[in-house]
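Thread title: Can someone regenerate the structure for this chain?

I was given the following input by a collaborator and told the matching structure tokens would be attached. They weren't. Posting the sequence so someone can regenerate them.
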Amino acid sequence: MKKTIQKYILGFTLIIIFTLLLTQVRWIVYSIKFQEKVFQKSVTLALNQTINHLTQNKRICSVMQQCVACDTVKLEIQLTSTGIWEKIHNAIDSELKSYEIDLDYDFFIVETGSDTIKFIKNEILKGKYYSQCLHEIIGQTGYDLVVRFPSRTRFFFEKTGLMFLSSVVLIFLLILSISYLLKLYRRELRIAEHTKELLNNVSHEFKTPLSSIALASNMIRKKRYSNNDKLKNYADLIFNENKKLEHLVESLLHLAAIERNEFDYSKMKLNIHEIIKDGISTVEMILFEKGGKIEIDFDAVKNDIIADKLHLTNVVVNLLSNAIKYSKESPNIKITTKNIEDKILITVKDNGIGIALKYQKYIFDKYYRVPTGDVHNTKGFGIGLAYVKKVVEAHDGNVDIESELNRGTTIKILLPLFN
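Best answer:
Regenerated them for you:
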């Protein structure tokens, strides 16, 4: 019930955040469109006032009326030579600045029925050209004063630049925050599931040896044995189950150390091949019981490293134990070493059940165990490979995995050599 409520709260929160995000985007679009309308209105008003200002100057009106029969090029030449063109420019410039429009522009006078004006009408729709009829100045229709703005970007940037940039930055940060929160939420869910599974595994793992010890000790306490052989069997059972408990406790201590990131390392010069052989001897009995074999191929000529013997041996034992544990058939394990520049590569390859590609990125996470549905034949706490990764990285190395479902797994460990 609690988990359901958390999901509803998270969903409601995400809806609010996305609503705010969409509102912000719509506000930016609205602001840009509004500024376009303001710009268009301001230019139109400026041109109207320009015409009104020029109409009051009788000399300008007279000269322009005399030049209307000329084509556009000659009209500009004649108006320039008489100083009228400059006065028109100054009038436009003054009116535009009164509306706080300080942009580069071109202006020209065109005949209404010409090809130029047809092109301009199309461009007016795009907001690049603005025209105003010269009827009041020349006393007849058919000529337009046209102003062209090559770029209006600076105007919009000056008006809405800070708000636009801040909105874009905030939207970007909001998207990043949402992505990160979702990532954290998925991670917390995964850890919660793994922790729950860990507790179940711990309960089951401890229950069996404790039950066996309780049974055997009870039989001894009540003297329910017929001879010394029977007594020895009970004692051996207690001893073996106690060993299992010690191993479980050690695993939990490793888990605690991983949680606190506290490992004590006593590093010294070691031969990695000897470490591997020690690890093999540790699992030989289990391997023998399963009818498996280990093949070694030590190609590395340089094999001295600076490492902690105990932890590195545990790494090898963990990898070999997994290779044995996850083999449906008789385990067939191959260990190889080779030098790569100033490092040594250790490869542990098995013929086990393999790991699906979608799970491989999680196998070095704490508590993680590859899902097997309702089948729980393989025991463990899901901390072995997390411990391996932690130890290898503490030795300035790295660990990688290659696996294919039902075709086996290869673990590669790269460690720096002793220099």
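The radius of gyration is 42 Å.
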